[in-house]
Amino acid sequence: MTQSAFHQVLDQLNGQGVTLITRRDDKAIERFERAIEASVILCRIVCSYESRWAFRSYRDTGLLSEDLCIWLEKAEQLTPQDYRDALQQRETMRQSLRALAPLADAMITLSCVGPAPPLDHLADSGEPGYAFKTGDPAFNAATSALGAPAITVPLLGIRGLPTGIQLIGQAHSDWPLAGHARWLMDTISPVSVS
Asked: Cα–Cα distances in Å, from 184 out to 12, 88, 155, 192?
């Protein structure tokens, strides 16, 4: 349902003369999409490793939540080499993004896999011991790892719940990306599906 609504937005863009290219059209896009596949795990490793010293201090006060205590236990298992490997993987991701600069002004995707889950829902992370309470962070993890600006515009409604379209730009392209987002809001009609 979400994918169908997204394709309706893409059809409107085509109707406005926007050229859309995908991984089937260019190998650099294919390489980029493959490079960002493990963004969630990469962000977890980098954030866990970099935060563990602060989390230790909070744990010692007894004020760290149970979930964050579990997160800290897993973070303590990371080695300096795990961290170095994650940083190298992040740099590879960023290089693959830079390779797309000559191809397009921005990228367009969904901002999430679908509407927000119920409050008591735990989304499987694919890693033992980790679950997501607010839905799958994959779309945001990629832009965080890339250091890329991302703007979400509220163009979709799925079963009465808002779902965004996300524009992603190159690092430090915030200003032109905001212009593209404004154009999108002014030009594309919102799509709602039940």
From this structure: 10, 35, 9, 16
